[in-house]
Amino acid sequence: MAEQIAIKVSNLKKSYGKTSVLKGIDFKVRKGSMLALLGPNGAGKTTTVRILSTLLKYDEGEVSVHGYDVKKQSEQVKSVIGLTGQSAAVDELLTGRENLIMMGRLYRLTKASADSRASELLEEFDLIDAAERPVKTYSGGMRRRLDLAVSLIATPPIIFLDEPTTGLDPRSRIAMWEIIRKLMSDGTTILLTTQYLEEADQLADQIIVIDGGKVIAEGTAKELKAKVGKDRLELIFRSANELRAAVKLLNKEVAGTDDKEQSLTIMINDTNTDVRNVLDKLAKGSINVESMAVHKPTLDDVFLSLTGKTAKVEEEEK
Known about the structure:
Elements: E1 5-16, E2 19-30, E3 34-38, H1 45-52, E4 60-65, E5 68-69, H2 74-78, E6 81-84, H3 96-106, H4 111-124, H5 140-151, E7 158-162, H6 170-185, E8 189-193, H7 197-203, E9 206-211, E10 214-219, H8 221-228, E11 231-237, H9 240-250, E12 254-258, E13 263-268, H10 271-284, E14 289-295, H11 299-307, H12 311-317
Parallel strand pairs: 3-8, 3-9, 6-7, 7-8
Antiparallel strand pairs: 1-2, 1-4, 4-5, 9-10, 11-13, 11-14, 12-13
């Protein structure tokens, strides 16, 4: 049986005046799976989502969602998608229930159906206790949950999540992850953009990295990490003097240092052998190690190796 494709993008190009934002993007999203878009600020992630959701016209290429041509069949596309943007798009003066019912009526649900669907979503998103309160009294996490619930009022088969957990505390972010996982288990197709690499690692079936308006890498989290290759040995020392002595002793083995943390990093191939050899050298040099840890490649390492920046830098720039 042929693989079912929910979203297909071929040679997508978009410019703002003389500034080229997308320079020929290609990707596919299988039905019932999640694709995460990663990339530095300005890479074109949000632009791509806006094009897919019919909010922005593109210059060249072919884009289809649920089998519909985004340019020629925009109304059909709108009927099969839900969109949660970077900030909650709900009416603060209305209650949570009223927001959901209003959106249901806009989707031409009957009043009874809109009421019923609103109650289902309030229960599912743990908002029953706050259902009759104005949204302006909600916390950030509650607003984001309501915003996602609103996008699901018509049970669309495809959802676009544009940085859905930005600004949330860790507890609220994990709660959103659980909601997203349930959507996936119900067969919903999801396209996610995120600034949190752990989010993509935890949730996505496939990941593509965009930089400079082009796709520079794609694969599963495991496949992308494998491209980075080696494990990292991190050693932390008791003093700056011991750190300098260790760097001088280990010399070319040192891949990087952090003076503030008084640590150094070494890339290793064979964990047992390489770690033992490093510790033996330090012991012979009478250099004391305060603590050590071996780290497997992460998506942050992938991001750094591909774009030249760490995710932490990206978040600070935002």
